[in-house]
């Protein structure tokens, strides 16, 4: 240290003091709600008083891509469906052979519901009617296909029962429906979402209910599913509430991400929770307590510290 000139030392020290920490949140298609949610979080984090964190978002294919990227630390933060997170952290189904123990949860933000959007003239009235139809299950990095196939398994359907199982990603599937390339698509998403609004503004759509009998069996088997209704009136032509089942959209982080950064991010959101809730109607029923319901995998230490401090967990 003795030989370093004073002015160089000052520069080194001040860059350390004032240097920003850059973080990126993996989201989903720009037309989905993960993208808006990542943006909402970054907005609060970046403007938080004295924050040195510079938060940005990345559009991705969705939950599966995000889960793998956070596990490999290609992404620090991302949003992942709670069913996929549960299966991965408990080494179930397609996740038997890899460890996902590096993925920790921060908060289970809002509910997402499995939504089967079809063309009204495709003559699909129940879930079983998708036999011999052209149905989009989603791209391989999305969470849609995983959840749709769990449902298939429960009702005794396979991909081979469909006329065509396509894999358009979330930003392509509404156009695919409008251009009559598919009869319907599955989307695990919060509501209202612009993708479905877009579909309903160009073609007559019908959202297919998942009957109670099926949902009850699923919930009995898989603890991370809950019942939910897609509210009537939010999409053109869809007047009634539609029963289905859903999961939570969970913000996750790699366990190696600094505790202070995770702590600061959670604090920035929770201290501005009313403002956060106004950023998307899908958050309208969430509470600070509900952020801890359906986490599916252990909390990151930084998040835990903040929740303990404000008495949300003991
Ligand atoms: N749940 C979807 C997925 O994981 C993404 C939904 C969204 O982008 O809002 O693929």
Textual characterization of the structure:
The protein has 314 residues and is of the alpha/beta class. The chain contains eleven helices and ten strands. Strands 1, 2, 3, 4, 5, 6, 7, 8, 9 and 10 form a ten-stranded mixed beta sheet that branches. Helix 9 packs across helix 11. The longest helix is centred in the first third of the chain and has 15 residues. The chain starts with 5 loop residues before the first helix and ends in a 5-residue tail after the last helix. The structure holds glutamic acid (GLU). The site of glutamic acid has 15 residues, from helix 2 and strand 7.
Tell me the strand percentage band.
15-25%
Oligomer state equals single chain
Low-pLDDT runs = none
By helix and strand content, what is the structural category? alpha/beta
Integer-rounded radius of gyration: 21 Å
Q: Which ligands does the model contain, each kind named once?
A: glutamic acid
The run of helices and strands is HEHEHEHEEHEHEHEHEEHHH
Proportion of residues in helical segments = 25-40%
Return the average pLDDT rounded to an integer: 94
Number of helices: 11
Q: What is the overall silhouette?
A: globular
- State the total count of DSSP E strands: 10
Distance between the termini: 46 Å
Largest sheet: 10 strands, mixed
């Amino acid at each position: 240290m003795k030989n370093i000139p004073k002015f160089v030392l000052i520069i080194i020290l001040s860059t350390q003091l004032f240097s920003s920490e850059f973080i990126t949140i993996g989201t989903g298609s720009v037309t989905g709600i993960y993208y808006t949610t990542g943006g909402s979080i970054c907005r609060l984090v970046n403007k938080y008083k004295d924050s040195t964190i510079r938060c940005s978002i990345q559009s991705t294919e969705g939950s599966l891509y995000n889960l793998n990227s956070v596990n490999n630390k290609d992404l620090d933060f991302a949003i992942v469906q709670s069913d996929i997170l549960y299966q991965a952290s408990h080494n179930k189904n397609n996740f038997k052979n890899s460890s996902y123990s590096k993925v920790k949860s921060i908060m289970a933000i809002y509910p997402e519901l499995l939504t089967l959007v079809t063309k009204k003239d495709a003559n699909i009235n129940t879930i079983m009617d998708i036999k011999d139809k052209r149905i989009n299950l989603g791209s391989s990095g999305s969470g849609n296909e995983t959840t749709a196939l769990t449902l298939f398994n429960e009702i005794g359907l396979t991909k081979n029962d469909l006329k065509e199982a396509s894999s358009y990603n979330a930003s392509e599937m509404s156009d695919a429906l409008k251009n009559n390339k598919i009869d319907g698509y599955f989307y695990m998403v919060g509501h209202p979402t612009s993708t479905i609004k877009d579909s309903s503004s160009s073609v007559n759509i019908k959202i297919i209910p998942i009957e109670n009998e099926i949902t009850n069996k699923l919930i009995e088997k898989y603890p991370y599913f809950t019942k939910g209704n897609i509210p009537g009136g939010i999409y053109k032509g869809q007047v009634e509430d539609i029963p289905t089942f859903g999961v939570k959209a969970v913000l996750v982080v790699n366990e190696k991400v600094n505790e202070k950064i995770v702590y600061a991010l959670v604090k920035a959101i929770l201290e501005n929770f009313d403002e956060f809730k106004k950023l998307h109607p899908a958050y309208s029923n969430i509470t600070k307590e509900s952020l801890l319901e359906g986490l599916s995998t252990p909390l990151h230490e930084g998040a835990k510290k903040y929740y303990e401090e404000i008495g949300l967990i003991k």
